[in-house]
Amino acid sequence: MSGITDLDQLLLSMQPKLSDGEFVFCTVKDDLQNYTKVKPLASFIEAEGLTLVLEKDMAEKSGIDFEGIYRQITLTVHSSLEAVGLTAAVSTKLASKGISANVIAAYYHDHIFVPASKANAALAALMELSQN
């Protein structure tokens, strides 16, 4: 099932949804198989180590260090992995409000991680973007 590629249609169709919970980005030196018990939402292997996106509570219980606390906003439109401009439009809108955006594109949806303290402002900005 292919997703939407047209940027205007993506922006008009997206219905940003703020997920419950708080998330953190961590880096560890071990293999992913050693961290399945912490149930990472996402992972990425970098030259410097393994990045994990975890629920904040799970990182704290497991003694895994982190720096910032984030909330997840899911763009509930099925965007194609070949769509051009969605990440740029979203990050530009959030940047105009002074909000950082850490974007993870999964198969069906894009997920934006924003500082927890700015989550409501980020959601409002994305709703504004989808209505224009």
From TrEMBL:
Domain DUF2241: 2-71
Annotated keywords: Plasmid
Residue ranges of the TM segments: none
Highest taxon of the lineage: Bacteria
InterPro entries cross-referenced by the UniProt entry: ACT-like_dom_sf, DUF2241
UniProt-recorded name of the protein: ACT domain protein
Taxonomic lineage from the root: Bacteria, Pseudomonadati, Pseudomonadota, Gammaproteobacteria, Vibrionales
